[in-house]
UniProtKB/TrEMBL annotation:
PANTHER family tied to this protein: PENICILLIN-BINDING PROTEIN ACTIVATOR LPOB
An annotated GO BP: peptidoglycan biosynthetic process
Pfam families: LpoB (PF13036)
Function recorded in the entry: Regulator of peptidoglycan synthesis that is essential for the function of penicillin-binding protein 1B (PBP1b).
Transmembrane segments: none
Native organism: Xenorhabdus bovienii str. kraussei Quebec
Name listed for the protein in its UniProt record: Penicillin-binding protein activator LpoB
Subunit and partners: Interacts with PBP1b.
Membrane topology note: Lipid-anchor
Keywords of this entry: Cell outer membrane, Cell shape, Lipoprotein, Membrane, Palmitate, Peptidoglycan synthesis, Signal
Length: 188
């Protein structure tokens, strides 16, 4: 009991102590200095935009397609899915444009019935796949081909750097996943 009384009296004593109150430090306003930006002299030279490298995909793909149609085990009139080209480069690639070029080159050979783009896109949506899927696996391609009732799938990958790219193409049998033909070439 004495302790409680002592604590209460100590608290009251400390609360009654007068401490000198300090006035706040004076504040003097400072006007900001006006910064003048250096004037840039107009230049007569216009900087050159970066050069866009044009790629002859048709010239790159044609020899590979010519090799593919001569492969053993390829039957005429079967349904072929030209899967979206996968980009394994360190730069950007117009994958859909390259895919269309491959499909056009294959259709000119009149060996396969190619699954129409519209049908492929609707199947991709139904399966929850993106047309720009960067995780393109052979198993996804075969699954998409099975969904579309295709007999073959043409799987393509572009790899390398912006300076030196190569394309690899594989023709696979959908039933078994067997690779019937494989070819590669430099991208020009």
């Amino acid at each position: 009991m004495k302790r409680i009384l002592f604590v209460i009296l100590s608290a009251m004593f400390l609360a009654s102590c007068n401490l000198p109150i300090q006035s706040p430090a004076p504040v003097t306003p400072v006007k900001p200095e006006k910064k003048t930006e250096p004037q840039v002299q107009p230049s007569d030279k216009v900087p050159q935009p970066p050069k866009i490298q044009s790629i002859n995909w048709n010239g790159t793909v044609q020899p590979l397609v010519a090799q593919m149609v001569k492969a053993n085990g390829v039957e005429t009139g079967k349904v072929l899915l030209v899967d979206t080209v996968k980009n394994n480069t360190n730069g950007s690639l117009r994958a859909l444009q390259v895919t269309d070029t491959i499909a056009d080159a294959v259709s000119r050979k009149q060996l396969f019935q190619i699954v129409p783009k519209k049908q492929v896109r609707s199947a991709q949506q139904a399966l929850g796949l993106s047309s720009e899927d960067s995780l393109g696996l052979r198993s996804k391609s075969i699954g998409l081909a099975r969904y579309l009732s295709a007999d073959y799938v043409l799987y393509s990958v572009v790899s390398g750097s912006n300076d030196q790219r190569s394309i690899e193409m594989q023709l696979m049998l959908v039933k078994t996943g067997e690779i019937l033909w494989s070819g590669s070439g430099d991208v020009n």
